[in-house]
Specification:
With 408 residues, the protein is an alpha/beta fold. The protein has 15 helices and 15 strands. The strands form three sheets. The protein has a nine-stranded mixed beta sheet, with helices on both faces. A four-stranded antiparallel beta sheet has the order 1-13-12-11, with no helix packed on it. A two-stranded antiparallel ribbon has the order 14-15.
Length: 408
């Protein structure tokens, strides 16, 4: 059921934000994230705030859309009362869990509430995640008709024994079907992959990448498997039933996917993300990496506005109780101080292709750039124009680069 919520100060029952949150708001994009915390089966590696039917303890999937709409309506009032200017959403992202376990009409209704309360900019990006076995052609057509523009399928692998190790239930041969159905509906398509699964060889990974590329998606994500404490996978590794992922093999896998995608015409724009063109980059996720504002709807969802971060009650039943009582679902928050915001700015900006203005670093960070270029971690040509952009090797060692920039 996911990691514990972070420590922070109690959030006020009315959800109102400090006046500092409104400073500079006109210069920041605004997005909405809707968390749908339901899964048919819990994957062994998953540490997200998700629940199978026997873990809901009184909460019902059929009630969820109405509860989320209640928070969306509440959120507009909170922002207005906190002095935030009215801003239409540039992006909306439905994540989970498996959002498409809900009927398409529920997802469309929640999107409608965002449109009613905030408005959507022309050409807004509206994405839902989906498992290949959680949607059919009619579902995808209804989503497109209801305003969705994009679907992100959790493919993870094309190799049956790798999918089994991850507790994924779909048949890899279904991926071409759902991609075709999404295309027929007029939706853009992203595929998500995971590498470093116990028992996965480099050849297995190559097979998965080739299978993904063969579908010609608009966007691909490839994430290294992280073994999270408290998960089934962590227990299996601790008992010796599965081998812990190898850092060296994962590095080889990252280099392989980057080489294969570059050869196929994709361009990296964030350490773990590639797009067929700049227009196909995930604008919603770029908002996170650029430090923009977003409201997170749903149990355990996190929000960020103007250096204020807060999070909702974690369990669906606790979330539902607060919405029913007309109380903000937020249970904790933190106001980021200047040094924390600067650390996050450097950490996040370094991960994206557009990079970090070298002149914005403190003196020690600026002096560290030369050594990073010499080590092959930073692109020398970009640095000459004043922008710090990671090389492929630098992307593998991004955390080390950030440490040198902050500590240099």
């Amino acid at each position: 059921m996911g990691a514990a919520l972070p420590l922070g100060d109690p959030a006020p029952a009315d959800g109102l934000l400090p006046s500092s949150a409104a400073l500079g708001a006109d210069d920041r994009a605004f997005g909405v994230y809707v968390h749908v915390p339901f899964c048919r089966v819990r994957c062994g590696y998953c540490d997200f705030n998700t629940y199978t039917s026997d873990e809901l303890r009184g909460a019902r999937q059929s009630d969820y859309a109405g509860q989320a709409i209640g928070e969306i309506r509440m959120s507009r009032g909170v922002l207005e009362a906190s002095g935030l200017p009215a801003r239409p959403a540039q992006t909306v992202f439905f994540g989970g869990g498996t959002p498409t376990l809900l009927p398409a009409r529920d997802l469309v209704a929640m999107l409608g509430a965002v449109r009613d309360e905030f408005g959507l900019v022309p050409g807004a990006e509206v994405t839902t995640e989906a498992n290949p076995d959680s949607v059919g052609p009619d579902d995808l057509a209804r989503l497109a008709d209801g305003g969705f523009t994009r679907v992100s399928f959790g493919m993870q692998s094309a190799v049956p024994h790798v999918l089994a190790a991850l507790d994924r239930t779909h048949d890899p041969e279904r991926v071409p079907l759902v991609v075709g159905w999404a295309r027929d509906a007029g939706l853009d398509v992203s595929l998500d992959l995971i590498y470093g699964t116990p028992g996965e060889s480099l050849d297995d990974w190559r097979r998965s990448v080739e299978h993904a590329v063969a579908q010609r998606p608009d966007h691909l994500s490839a994430y290294a498997l992280i073994v999270e404490d408290g998960t089934k996978l962590a227990r299996q590794i601790r008992r010796g039933e599965l081998a812990e992922p190898s850092d060296d093999l994962e590095a080889d896998m990252y280099e392989l996917v980057d080489e294969q995608l570059e050869a196929a015409g994709y361009e990296w724009y964030e350490v773990s993300n590639w797009a067929s063109s700049p227009a196909q980059r995930s604008r919603h996720n770029l908002g996170y990496w650029r430090g923009d504002d977003w409201w997170g709807v749903g149990p355990g969802a996190h929000s960020h506005v103007g250096g204020v971060r807060w999070w909702n009650a974690k369990h669906p039943s606790a979330y539902a109780d607060r919405i029913a009582a007309g109380v903000s679902p937020a249970v904790g928050r933190e106001v980021l101080d200047g040094p924390t915001r600067e650390t996050e700015r450097v950490l996040l900006s370094t991960r994206i292709r557009e990079g970090l203005e070298i002149s914005s670093l403190h003196a020690g960070g600026r002096h560290a750039v030369a050594a990073l270029i010499a080590d092959g971690l930073v692109d020398a040509k970009a640095a000459l124009s004043g922008v710090l952009t990671l090389t492929r090797r630098g992307r593998l060692l991004a955390d080390a680069v950030v440490r040198q920039l902050l500590e240099g």
